[in-house]
Design brief:
eight-stranded antiparallel barrel
């Protein structure tokens, strides 16, 4: 997933624009996203309503999972719709590199997975992102390595 982070700024505030990729690996030898709970009817629902997934995803500068690791995306998402694949996402971008090392961005919002671009609110942060406000734009990116890793193609 490609994430673009945009922070709102007033005249006296700094505006930041970050672009990075996080890799939500659900079907592999070492998954970074794991279902930790579900409702009794989850598997019978095409939208997976009631499933809860914990994540510890790599955050990289390029779509290639082997590109430079700049942090982790850690948190949880839950399948929150009975009719379409929409997630309630609660996670932190935890940065481990450069001037953002040790800082976090906190996101809480709805992710309608089938939409080409999704906007999720940034509700806070720590370190250099203390008192931040803004939003992130999520776009699904599927490269050939992703298909190979996911589907054995």
């Amino acid at each position: 997933m490609s994430i673009i982070v945009k922070a709102e700024a007033r005249e006296s505030e700094k505006l930041s624009h970050l672009h990075f990729y996080f890799h939500d690996i659900v079907a592999a030898k070492n998954p970074t996203a794991m279902r930790v709970a579900q409702a009794p009817s989850t598997d019978a629902c095409s939208a997976l309503f009631g499933a809860v997934v914990m994540i510890d995803d790599p955050l990289t500068i390029d779509p290639d999972i082997n590109s430079k690791l700049v942090g982790k995306v850690q948190g949880v998402y839950a399948f929150a719709s009975q009719s379409d694949v929409s997630l309630l996402m609660v996670y932190n971008f935890a940065f481990m590199e450069g001037k953002y090392n040790g800082s976090t961005l906190s996101v809480l919002g709805r992710n309608s997975v089938i939409s080409s671009v999704r906007e999720l609110p940034i509700v806070g942060g720590s370190g250099v992102f203390r008192f931040i406000r803004g939003y992130s734009e999520a776009k699904t990116y599927i490269g050939s390595q992703d298909w190979e890793r996911c589907c054995g193609i």
